[in-house]
Specification:
single chain; 424 residues; alpha+beta; 14 helices
Length: 424
């Protein structure tokens, strides 16, 4: 398969031939993922609360020539403006592999230095107010890190962390949103047990005793492990906000050494950016009569978009409210010292990049694709065109794209191309 068509398809080509070929139908797992992505993008373009999300990938950066790049993972236009919102199907996977590598290498570096690494989940009660819950988790995690860092510094210890936000929805009940945090915590030295200097309330004492905490003969809390210290700090942070959390709903586990464990953990932490998993959730069906996952059970963000695709009216308002609530909040974050765990000479070898086929083409073609309305089954022409090019790439028929760009940039040629080859 040729690697680069750009010398053939420079900006000067303006052949006047028309485009006429036979239709083609293919089925591949990667293509099905991209089709689900395009369906999700159609929902985003219709219902996103911001213009940047609605127009993601549809406008050129000024003074940048349009380029079509196709690999085994998808097709994209480079030189276009993106919304950089990690809830956007187009943008969510853009930096995923880089982040997975960073987490993998950080965990590997910590374990190489004989540090203890823990995977931790924090939850808070389900809420009907997405913005309030997002603010609480964001501020609460900052306070938690301050408390935990202070405790470790008193022991001459140091903390390294990665934090990722996640959310599930229950669209048929009042408390819709369940936002929670998945964290990786690494400590430089072994944890040292300590005894609190203050007395706990009778209510707290009874609650801690029921959950396996120990007190000395002076009724002061003895924190004997890092797990207990983490849970205790999170409990205290929530108590200042009059939020009662359950220890059973929180989780702290030590990460086992090994590449498989690191990879699985980093992918789980970044599951929101796992294109295959999340796009599969978009069309995931279970339960009676083959219906989409039942609206009375928890669902992911992509499953929520799937309900919008099915025409569920309340899902649109929930989708928009959640995106507005998350404005200004980072969905993932790392401590400043996380990079200290990554040794350049010890970085795992990067996988060889898949061959990329690049097409440079005229501005006229891009503006035609950009501005064409209802090009194919009410999908944005930009999205339909990209999934069509990816479909042709999967069948080793890149020459169809070459012939299109060599033909005259007219709406009829583009409509014929999409009608005969678009898998939507």
């Amino acid at each position: 398969m040729p690697v680069d068509y750009s010398p053939l398809l420079s900006h000067g080509i303006t052949s006047q031939s028309s485009y006429q070929e036979q239709p083609l139908t293919i089925k591949t797992s990667n293509l099905n993922i991209r089709i689900s992505q395009i369906k999700a993008m159609r929902i985003q373009r219709r219902h996103a609360p911001t213009i940047s999300m609605a127009n993601c990938g549809r406008k050129l950066i000024p003074n940048v020539a349009p380029v079509l790049a196709i690999t085994k993972s998808g097709a994209r236009f480079s030189g276009t403006q993106s919304c950089n919102n990690q809830h956007c199907p187009n943008c969510m996977a853009a930096s995923r592999q880089k982040r997975i590598d960073s987490i993998n290498q950080g965990i590997k570096g910590a374990q190489k230095r004989k540090m203890k690494v823990f995977f931790n989940t924090f939850t808070c009660p389900r809420s009907s107010n997405a913005k309030e819950q997002a603010n609480h988790l964001s501020y609460g995690f900052k306070c938690f890190i301050d408390k935990l860092t202070y405790r470790l510094r008193k022991q001459g210890n140091a903390l390294y962390f990665v934090r990722a936000n996640d959310v599930t929805f229950r669209i048929e009940q009042r408390e819709i949103y369940h936002q929670h945090l998945h964290n990786i915590l690494a400590i430089k030295k072994p944890f040292q047990s300590y005894t609190e200097y203050r007395y706990r309330s009778i209510e707290d004492t009874e609650y801690f005793l029921r959950n396996g905490f120990n007190f000395n003969n002076k009724n002061k809390l003895v924190v004997s492990s890092f797990d207990e210290c983490v849970l205790l700090c999170w409990y205290d942070v929530n108590k200042t906000k009059d939020i009662k959390i359950s220890f059973q709903a929180q989780d702290v586990q030590e990460v086992r050494p090994g590449k498989k464990s690191r990879t699985q953990l980093s992918q789980y932490l970044l599951k929101f950016w796992s294109m295959g998993q999340e796009m599969a959730c978009f069309a995931h069906k279970e339960g009676k009569h083959g219906k989409l996952t039942t609206k009375y059970r928890s669902m992911s963000f992509m499953q929520l978009m799937g309900w919008i695709e099915q025409g569920h009216p309340r899902s649109i308002a929930i989708y928009q409210e959640y995106l507005k609530a998350m404005y200004g909040h980072r969905t993932i974050g790392k401590s400043h010292n996380w990079k200290d765990l990554i040794d350049d000479e010890e970085e795992e070898e990067e996988e060889e990049k898949p061959p990329e086929i690049v097409f440079s083409f005229s501005f006229e073609w891009f503006h035609l694709i950009q501005n064409m309305n209802n090009a194919h089954k009410n999908y944005c022409a930009t999205d339909s065109f990209l999934v069509t090019c990816f479909s042709l790439y999967n069948t080793d028929r890149i020459d169809r794209i070459e012939k299109l760009f060599m033909s005259s940039p007219t709406g009829d040629n583009l409509k014929i191309f999409l009608k005969k080859y678009c898998p939507l």
